[in-house]
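User:
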Amino acid sequence: MLSEIHQFLPCATPEQWLDDALAHPDILLIDHANCEKKAASTAMNLIYRYTDDFDLLNKMSRLAREELRHFEQVLALMKQRGIDYRHVEAARYAAGLRAAVRNNSSVGGREQLVDILVVGAFIEARSCERFAALAPRVDAQLGDFYRSLLKSESRHYKDYLTLASRYAEPQQLAERIALFRQLEGELIVAPDQQFRFHSGPLAA
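Assistant: Predicted structure:
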């Protein structure tokens, strides 16, 4: 699945970001916890908003449970390492992707739903790619944990993309994926003022 994810994403994580991650281990875990919590919240929001699709409901319910379990696992690692769960501002990444999500312009808001699902696929794919890139660079405990997340993160990416294909014609979906792929690549390579799990490399 990693090869498919690498093909789906517009670019690899910059080496500078990986160096930044090793230089900010506390923020890496704190923001990872935030990402898991937000992912669970996104899934729950979809469950509440779109109640007429049993496949979506089941996939998002499972995803929310898994993301909350990951959240608990990150908290446990932070506790072991003496890292306080303090507030950090969100990265511009997710907000930057969601800025291109269409408003409801069709019956049932399906165009908006397609975009939300595509954004979810990119976020999950990028998370998976970064876990795989970080695993051999961090300590053994953290590396094992990141490797343990790859299967579920790649499945989440696939679930989002599969659901999106139910609500858009293939050409329309391809166009939305292309739009978000370009935007995602720009967000990943552009310098950031603060390190976060989904940030670009830190500005010099």
